[in-house]
Protein backbone atom coordinates (compact mmCIF):
# COMPACT_ATOMS: atom_id res chain seq x y z
CA UNK A 1 0.00 0.00 0.00
CA UNK A 2 1.39 3.42 -1.01
CA UNK A 3 1.70 5.86 1.89
CA UNK A 4 3.32 8.76 0.07
CA UNK A 5 1.92 11.60 -1.99
CA UNK A 6 4.13 13.27 -4.59
CA UNK A 7 3.37 16.44 -6.46
CA UNK A 8 5.00 19.66 -7.62
CA UNK A 9 4.52 22.85 -5.66
CA UNK A 10 5.54 25.99 -7.54
CA UNK A 11 7.87 23.89 -9.63
CA UNK A 12 9.55 22.09 -6.73
CA UNK A 13 8.97 18.36 -6.16
CA UNK A 14 7.25 17.55 -2.86
CA UNK A 15 6.77 14.14 -1.28
CA UNK A 16 4.69 13.74 1.85
CA UNK A 17 4.82 10.63 4.01
CA UNK A 18 1.47 9.48 5.34
CA UNK A 19 -0.39 12.79 5.09
CA UNK A 20 -3.55 12.99 7.17
CA UNK A 21 -6.63 12.13 5.06
CA UNK A 22 -8.34 15.30 6.30
CA UNK A 23 -5.41 17.64 5.62
CA UNK A 24 -6.68 20.25 3.17
CA UNK A 25 -4.44 21.94 0.63
CA UNK A 26 -5.13 25.45 1.99
CA UNK A 27 -4.09 24.38 5.51
CA UNK A 28 -1.00 22.65 4.15
CA UNK A 29 0.03 25.72 2.12
CA UNK A 30 -0.48 28.12 5.03
CA UNK A 31 1.18 25.87 7.62
CA UNK A 32 4.35 27.24 9.25
CA UNK A 33 6.39 24.50 7.55
CA UNK A 34 5.32 25.60 4.05
CA UNK A 35 4.57 29.30 4.64
CA UNK A 36 2.79 30.05 1.36
CA UNK A 37 0.20 32.47 2.72
CA UNK A 38 -0.82 34.07 -0.58
CA UNK A 39 -3.91 31.87 -0.81
CA UNK A 40 -6.35 32.92 1.91
CA UNK A 41 -8.87 30.90 3.86
CA UNK A 42 -12.01 33.00 3.74
CA UNK A 43 -15.17 30.90 3.92
CA UNK A 44 -13.48 27.51 4.08
CA UNK A 45 -16.35 25.91 2.16
CA UNK A 46 -15.79 26.66 -1.52
CA UNK A 47 -17.85 29.83 -1.76
CA UNK A 48 -15.53 32.84 -1.81
CA UNK A 49 -12.55 31.80 -3.96
CA UNK A 50 -9.94 33.51 -1.81
CA UNK A 51 -8.08 30.18 -1.56
CA UNK A 52 -7.82 29.63 -5.34
CA UNK A 53 -4.68 28.00 -6.70
CA UNK A 54 -3.80 26.51 -10.07
CA UNK A 55 -3.87 22.72 -10.44
CA UNK A 56 -2.12 21.22 -13.44
CA UNK A 57 -2.56 17.64 -14.55
CA UNK A 58 -1.11 15.79 -17.47
CA UNK A 59 -3.65 15.09 -20.20
CA UNK A 60 -2.18 12.02 -21.88
CA UNK A 61 -4.71 12.08 -24.76
CA UNK A 62 -3.90 15.65 -25.73
CA UNK A 63 -0.22 15.27 -24.68
CA UNK A 64 -0.27 18.51 -22.75
CA UNK A 65 -0.94 19.85 -19.28
CA UNK A 66 -4.49 20.81 -18.38
CA UNK A 67 -4.66 23.77 -16.01
CA UNK A 68 -7.62 24.45 -13.74
CA UNK A 69 -8.19 26.88 -10.92
CA UNK A 70 -9.41 25.05 -7.82
CA UNK A 71 -10.54 25.93 -4.31
CA UNK A 72 -7.70 24.72 -2.14
CA UNK A 73 -10.06 24.70 0.86
CA UNK A 74 -11.91 21.79 -0.73
CA UNK A 75 -8.94 19.81 -1.98
CA UNK A 76 -7.43 17.15 0.30
CA UNK A 77 -3.67 16.90 0.00
CA UNK A 78 -4.16 13.16 -0.50
CA UNK A 79 -5.82 13.94 -3.85
CA UNK A 80 -2.77 15.75 -5.25
CA UNK A 81 -0.61 12.80 -6.24
CA UNK A 82 0.89 13.29 -9.70
CA UNK A 83 -0.30 16.87 -10.08
CA UNK A 84 1.38 20.27 -10.06
CA UNK A 85 0.13 23.06 -7.80
CA UNK A 86 0.91 26.71 -8.48
CA UNK A 87 0.15 29.37 -5.89
CA UNK A 88 0.31 33.13 -6.35
CA UNK A 89 3.88 33.00 -5.02
CA UNK A 90 4.81 30.82 -7.97
CA UNK A 91 3.68 33.35 -10.56
CA UNK A 92 6.18 36.14 -9.99
CA UNK A 93 7.99 38.29 -7.49
CA UNK A 94 7.13 41.79 -6.45
CA UNK A 95 9.73 44.51 -6.26
CA UNK A 96 7.31 47.24 -5.17
CA UNK A 97 7.44 49.91 -7.88
CA UNK A 98 5.56 52.45 -5.67
CA UNK A 99 3.82 54.25 -8.50
CA UNK A 100 2.06 57.46 -7.52
CA UNK A 101 -1.49 56.17 -7.94
CA UNK A 102 -0.92 53.34 -5.47
CA UNK A 103 0.00 55.80 -2.73
CA UNK A 104 -2.98 55.92 -0.40
CA UNK A 105 -4.64 59.32 -0.20
CA UNK A 106 -7.08 60.38 2.48
CA UNK A 107 -9.55 61.33 -0.28
CA UNK A 108 -9.65 57.70 -1.45
CA UNK A 109 -11.55 56.55 1.65
CA UNK A 110 -15.33 56.58 1.90
CA UNK A 111 -15.11 59.23 4.60
CA UNK A 112 -12.95 61.59 2.58
CA UNK A 113 -10.96 64.22 4.40
CA UNK A 114 -12.57 67.69 4.53
CA UNK A 115 -11.13 70.30 2.11
CA UNK A 116 -9.50 72.11 5.02
CA UNK A 117 -7.61 68.99 6.12
CA UNK A 118 -3.86 69.51 6.40
CA UNK A 119 -1.96 66.21 6.43
CA UNK A 120 0.72 65.73 9.09
CA UNK A 121 4.25 66.72 8.11
CA UNK A 122 5.35 63.05 8.12
CA UNK A 123 2.67 62.18 5.58
CA UNK A 124 3.60 65.13 3.36
CA UNK A 125 7.25 64.11 3.50
CA UNK A 126 6.40 60.47 2.72
CA UNK A 127 4.30 61.54 -0.26
CA UNK A 128 7.08 63.75 -1.58
CA UNK A 129 9.52 60.87 -1.25
CA UNK A 130 7.05 58.57 -3.01
CA UNK A 131 6.61 61.07 -5.84
CA UNK A 132 10.37 61.38 -6.22
CA UNK A 133 10.73 57.59 -6.39
CA UNK A 134 7.90 57.39 -8.89
CA UNK A 135 9.44 60.10 -11.07
CA UNK A 136 12.82 58.38 -10.98
CA UNK A 137 11.13 55.14 -11.99
CA UNK A 138 9.24 56.84 -14.82
CA UNK A 139 12.49 58.28 -16.16
CA UNK A 140 14.12 54.86 -15.92
CA UNK A 141 11.13 53.25 -17.67
CA UNK A 142 11.28 55.89 -20.42
CA UNK A 143 14.95 55.13 -20.90
CA UNK A 144 14.05 51.45 -21.27
CA UNK A 145 11.27 52.27 -23.69
CA UNK A 146 8.51 51.02 -21.33
CA UNK A 147 5.73 52.92 -19.61
CA UNK A 148 5.29 53.29 -15.86
CA UNK A 149 2.17 55.40 -16.22
CA UNK A 150 -1.38 54.59 -15.22
CA UNK A 151 -3.62 55.86 -17.99
CA UNK A 152 -4.23 53.25 -20.65
CA UNK A 153 -2.52 50.56 -18.58
CA UNK A 154 1.11 49.54 -18.57
CA UNK A 155 2.97 49.00 -21.79
CA UNK A 156 4.01 45.54 -22.86
CA UNK A 157 7.18 44.57 -21.06
CA UNK A 158 6.42 46.61 -17.94
CA UNK A 159 5.58 43.43 -16.02
CA UNK A 160 9.10 42.20 -16.42
CA UNK A 161 10.28 45.41 -14.89
CA UNK A 162 8.45 44.74 -11.63
CA UNK A 163 8.70 40.96 -11.64
CA UNK A 164 4.97 40.55 -11.10
CA UNK A 165 2.83 38.29 -13.24
CA UNK A 166 0.93 40.30 -15.88
CA UNK A 167 -2.54 39.73 -14.38
CA UNK A 168 -1.52 40.81 -10.86
CA UNK A 169 0.37 43.76 -12.28
CA UNK A 170 -2.55 45.06 -14.32
CA UNK A 171 -4.95 44.52 -11.42
CA UNK A 172 -2.70 46.58 -9.16
CA UNK A 173 -2.01 49.28 -11.73
CA UNK A 174 -5.72 49.79 -12.40
CA UNK A 175 -6.86 49.86 -8.76
CA UNK A 176 -8.55 46.47 -9.10
CA UNK A 177 -8.67 45.62 -5.41
CA UNK A 178 -10.05 47.00 -2.18
CA UNK A 179 -8.79 45.27 0.95
CA UNK A 180 -6.96 42.79 -1.27
CA UNK A 181 -7.77 39.74 0.83
CA UNK A 182 -9.37 37.90 -2.08
CA UNK A 183 -7.23 39.45 -4.84
CA UNK A 184 -4.88 36.49 -5.07
CA UNK A 185 -7.92 34.32 -5.74
CA UNK A 186 -9.01 36.62 -8.56
CA UNK A 187 -5.52 36.56 -10.03
CA UNK A 188 -5.23 32.79 -9.91
CA UNK A 189 -8.67 32.36 -11.44
CA UNK A 190 -7.85 34.73 -14.32
FE1 LIG B 1 -13.64 30.41 0.42
FE2 LIG B 1 -11.98 28.38 -0.25
S1 LIG B 1 -11.82 29.69 1.43
S2 LIG B 1 -13.66 29.17 -1.39
Quick overview:
Helices cover about 25% and strands about 15% of the residues.
Q: What is the CATH T-level topology of the largest domain? A: Ubiquitin-like (UB roll)
3D shape: elongated
Got a strand count? 5
**Per DSSP, what share of the residues sits in E-state strands of 2 or more residues?**
15-25%
Q: Classify the helix fraction into a percent range.
A: 25-40%
In the CATH hierarchy, what is the class of the largest domain? Alpha Beta
Alpha carbon gap, first and last residue: 38 Å
**Content-based structural category:** alpha+beta
**How many distinct domains?**
2
* CATH architecture call of the largest domain: Roll
Radius of gyration: 21 Å
State the strand order across the main sheet.
2-1-5-3-4
Uncertain spans: 96-109, 148-161
Count of helices? 5
CATH superfamily membership of the largest domain: Beta-grasp domain
Oligomeric state: single chain
Order of helices and strands: EEHEEEHHHH
Largest sheet, if any? 5 strands, mixed
Mean pLDDT: 79
Associated small molecules: FE2/S2 (inorganic) cluster
Summarize the structure in words.
The chain has 190 residues and is α+β, with helices and mostly antiparallel strands. It folds into two domains: 4-90, Beta-grasp domain (Ubiquitin-like (UB roll), Roll), CATH 3.10.20; 106-162, no CATH class. It contains five helices and five strands; from the N terminus they run ββαβββαααα. It has helices at residues 25-30, 121-144, 158-162, 166-173, 183-189; strands spanning 4-9, 12-17, 52-59, 64-71, 84-86. A hairpin with a 4-residue loop joins strand 3 and strand 4 (64-71). The model is unreliable at 96-109 and 148-161 (pLDDT under 50). The structure holds FE2/S2 (inorganic) cluster. FE2/S2 (inorganic) cluster (FES) binds next to loops.
Amino acid sequence: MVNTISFFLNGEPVTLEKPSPDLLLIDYLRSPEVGLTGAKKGCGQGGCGACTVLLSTWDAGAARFAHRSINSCLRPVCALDGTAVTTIEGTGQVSRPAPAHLTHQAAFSRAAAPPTYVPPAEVTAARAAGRARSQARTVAAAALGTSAGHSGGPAAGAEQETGMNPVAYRLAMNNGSQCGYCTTGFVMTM
